[in-house]
Automatic annotation (TrEMBL):
Organism this protein belongs to: Fagus sylvatica (Beechnut)
Protein name: Glycosyltransferase
KW Transferase (keyword) present: yes
Keywords: Transferase
InterPro entries listed in its UniProt record: UDP-glycosyltransf_plant, UDP_glucos_trans
Length: 397
């Protein structure tokens, strides 16, 4: 089996390094063909992180860390701007990175089993794009910030020659003589990368038709035994609908299930960004434990719920949503850990029902979502109630 090697070039700050290593681990866990080399630069003013970063990769033989020799630090006057200093330091490391990458590519050129397929660059390291180009390697941007910052950086070059109120800009770019130019130079390279790496689950959701995916998530404490996991899996498969399932123990899956649902379903191991998923246009239904936060989040985004209460007050929540409000599809109202299993047939029926675009629950949830948004606007019931509470708390003082 021919293996593909990626070369990561992160900024040496611990937050960037740890995130990079964790992302690298996720990649190799997904595909046995991947090898990853991480080039580790050293800032002169940060504490040594070698022991810690190496501890993160000790159980990962397909990830190797290469410590680059420390270069002379930039001039001390550049310290007045962190952006300038980091950019200057990265620039000074380019010759070393180029030499190291060239050696790796050269050593693999004589190998029938491994080839270097690209660079993965921290956004501060985008000047390294030119190293990749010289060696005919594509570069990918790994951004350790949120999507809002990505949008800002993509837009910064466009706004460069236009007047813009200072209040809308991050503080790092307010000083035109210091940080601004450094960030502008980085921003100009964003579109030179082959791609910007984002969560593979969100990318999968982006590719699905609107309202076509049922999302299953059972809270931070919700868990099932092997028998119930099997029934849920069989019910999902039998329903024929696309699905995204947040599951802590994917090893409990029925034999062959993951192969059979490839392209049709996704498993999110561990914690899931539930709000982000519910807000996605592809999500058309939500199988939930009926925790109150989950109900509010689903109401806000107008996503119809299938009830599977597990503990605490969730049975009451489920009853209210199904019987009193007509805002959910009943699968179980009284399910508890240790009770009879919810069968695959029950799950299949409930999923088919909630994903039916003509059902009344979907219409009511959409209306409720619109009402919820009006409630928090000025003049809305929630807006007024909060004002009354504040007045009651501090009005007489």
């Amino acid at each position: 089996m021919k293996q593909a090697e990626l070369i990561f070039v992160p900024v040496p700050g611990i937050g960037h390094l740890v995130s990079t290593i964790e992302f690298a681990k996720r990649l190799i866990d997904r595909d046995d063909r991947l090898l990853i080399t991480i080039l580790s630069m050293k800032f002169p003013f940060t504490p040594a992180t070698d022991a810690y970063t190496r501890s993160l990769t000790t159980s990962q033989p397909r990830i190797q860390l290469i410590d680059l020799p420390q270069v002379d630090p930039p001039r001390s006057e550049l310290l007045k701007s962190r952006g300038y200093y980091i950019s200057a330091y990265i620039e000074s490391n380019i010759p070393i990175v180029k030499d190291t990458v060239t050696k790796i590519v050269s050593s693999n050129s004589n190998s029938d089993s491994t080839r270097v397929v690209g660079l993965v660059l921290d956004f501060f390291c985008l000047p390294m794009i030119d190293v990749g180009r010289e060696l005919s390697l594509p570069s990918y941007l790994y951004l350790t910030c949120n999507a809002g910052f990505l949008g800002f950086m993509l837009y910064l070059p466009i706004r460069h020659n236009q007047i813009v109120p200072p209040g809308v800009l991050p503080s790092a770019v307010l000083d035109k003589d210091n940080g601004y130019t450094a960030y502008l130079e980085i921003a100009l390279r964003f579109r030179d990368t082959k791609g910007i790496i984002r969560d593979n689950i969100m990318k999968w959701l982006d590719d699905q038709p609107p309202l076509s995916v049922v999302f299953l998530c059972f809270g931070s404490m919700g868990s099932f035994g092997a028998g119930q996991v099997k029934e849920i899996a069989l019910g999902l498969e039998g329903s024929g609908h696309r699905f995204l399932w947040s599951l802590r123990t994917p090893t409990l899956m029925p034999e062959g299930f993951l192969e059979r649902i490839k392209g049709k379903g996704m498993i999110c191991n561990g914690w899931a960004p539930q709000v982000e998923f519910l807000a996605h246009k592809a999500i058309g239904g939500f199988v939930s434990h009926c925790g109150w936060n989950s109900i509010l989040e689903s109401l806000w985004h107008g996503v119809p719920i299938v009830t599977l209460p597990l503990y605490a007050e969730q049975q009451l929540n489920a009853f209210s949503m199904v019987r009193e409000l007509g805002l959910a599809v009943e699968m179980r109202l009284d399910y508890k850990i240790g009770a009879d299993l919810v069968s695959g047939d029950e799950i299949e029926r409930a999923v088919r029902h909630v994903m039916d675009g003509t059902n009344e629950v979907r219409k009511k949830m959409k209306e409720m979502g619109e009402m919820a948004r009006k409630a928090v606007m000025e003049g809305g019931s929630s807006f007024i109630s909060i004002g009354q509470l504040i007045e009651d708390m501090i009005g007489s003082s």
